[in-house]
Amino acid sequence: VKSEGFLMIVLDNEKRIFTLQTRNTTYQMKADRHNILLHTYYGPRLLGGDLSCLIQYADRGFSPNPNEVGDERDYSLDTLPQEYSSCGVGDFRIPSVEFSPEDGSRLADLRYEGFALYRGKYRLEGLPAFWGGDEWETLVIRMKDDAAKMSVELYYGVLEDRDLITRAVRVVNQGTGPVRLLRCASLCLDFQQDSMDFITFDGCHTMERCPNRTPLRPGIQSVNSLRGTSSHHHNPFVILCGHEANEDYGLCYGAMLVYSGNFQAAAERTQLENNRLVLGVDPYNFCFTLAPGESFTAPEAALVCSPNGFGQMSRQFHRAMRENLIRDPYHGKRRPVLMNNWEATYFDFTADKLVEIAKGGAGLGIELFVMDDGWFGTRDTDMTGLGDWDVNEKKLPGGLEALAPRIKALGMDFGLWIEPEMVSENSRLYQEHPDWALGVPGRPQARGRSQLVLDFSRKEVRDSIYEAIRKILDSANIAYLKWDMNRSLSDVWSAALPSGRQGEVYHRYVLGVYDFLERLRRDYPDLLIEGCSGGGGRFDAGMLYYTPQIWCSDNTDAIDRLRIQYGTSFCYPVSSMGAHISVSPNEQNGRVTSLETRGVAAMSGTFGYEMDLGRCTPEERETVKKQTAFFKAHYDLIQKGDYYRLSDPFKDPCTAWEQVSEDRREALVSIVCGPTQAAVPFRRLRLKGLDPALCYAVNGEGAYPGDVLMYAGWPLPIPRGDYQSLQLYLTAL
Ligand code: DGJ
Question: To which H or E segment does residue 399 belong?
């Protein structure tokens, strides 16, 4: 009856109940007498037992009954909470999986078959996934559709301290003929409970991941991406929560997909006012033909349930991602403060000009200089040159071999921008291999930023680009790569696959990107890779597995960034968000902000500069010096501290957030005010996460009890001027 030696997974073999216990939550499913795997509970931690007593049965009109239950009319797949929903056999809510064998049917009827249990974390071949050792336990449940001869394995990874439950799905064709797999979600979550709110993170290029919260209305509501990447427009992270839930209170469920391609997050409020969430690869143009014995693995999804509001949920995701997802070559060390020439020069630079700019940062605490787009082939504008990865010797005489040491002599490492997935039509590469771009013969492709997308589903394409990039990386001492990707996929068709298998291209493309990144990691283990897709167009947990930081947005305006970084923080840790100080007035929106305020905003990210520091006044240079010194001195607190959102930049006059050390003896509060006004009301900011019994010095002065700071608050100074900012550094006395 007991699962000997397992701490987080509790089995009741006789009753076929599987209970996953984390520090604060309980998740349970049960294989019932008809071998249907029912989802019995997910929520605040309970002692356990058989929670199927919570499930209600009722006969509902037009909700059919499985053949074998006879006249048991209150037993319907349409009304019962399913662990992984079937398709076309009586559950009319969102399906999880859909098979089409040779008879052309499109159904899936899954029945429980058995389970396996092991210590440690399962792995997914070719896909990013949370990792770790014995702090994990794994449960595998085997289900089968007898008629289609398809088996479905549901994987569960449990990470107790982080309240994290990961899920993945593997489908195997056990029959004798081919079966088409038409959808395969990573996660299905049913709630037989009241209506909930659905929170999604939406936006566009330069304004990513803005939270949107709506009560679930009857029917299906969803966000997705059909752009081939996870996209600027919606993020593969969503929340379901009670109507009352807020930062510090109420029940909420965060669900993320560890994947960087097309996705769908669909929530449904049903006829019985129950709720279902399904998360996975979007079924549009998705069709994998599995020959007998072949399998398909759906990407991993991860869940955190917080009984205490969004803040706790975010902190659990942040820790889990930092410690068990992101593979950081700087593990245990500080990542470098960088400067990037993009907004300082765009395409207009030479080696001498870059060295001049780097000189401007020398002595100010900058540790890495990044040469952005424009250094290769004929790349003098964004209309040309992609695909030909050889140094433009007119701009950079002597190549990177000559430039990197000049940068090193200024005390900085050297980094480089690449965009390996793309090709310009006027490149040598395209002239030689026009079929290497995605596109249907006879149908001219749509261009995005004047470029086409290389067919990364093909190994020979990846190999050729890899070889070119490898040569570049071996030509000089390169410490960092910015991996950019500047358009959405269209005309998705691969010359390497037959017509019946074109539904595999979107997913194979993503697997190709992962394969390339994994090779880079293997061959250059010390290389820091920053992801980027026109800023935050591929900001997801899948990319973070390979690229420990991602350029959060092409919008470098400090005030817009407060919103973008706020939305991003619901799931992703500070250490993953590329954030830089750029010039004022800002290049994207013309807003004027002080260097101090720009520093406060950028410091809650991976921190760097995107401007020519040589143009700064002596006073500004002093400020920069102070900023880099402050960031380095408080690096662990800023990057690894527990993150608290203290206000909502979409509603509140001031934006404030806080990082608190694990022992609660240190905290950093950052505050940025909005536009000023006359007669500013008196305001207090209530801090969070401190020890109420400790006294804290604020910026080295005074002794303020933690309870006063948290429950009474800190009086905010009255701003004189727009967008003023301040930081409070708290140390326990
Ligand atoms: C888009 C990126 O987000 C920018 O930072 C910059 O690298 C440009 N691409 C270069 O083309």
Answer: helix 399-408
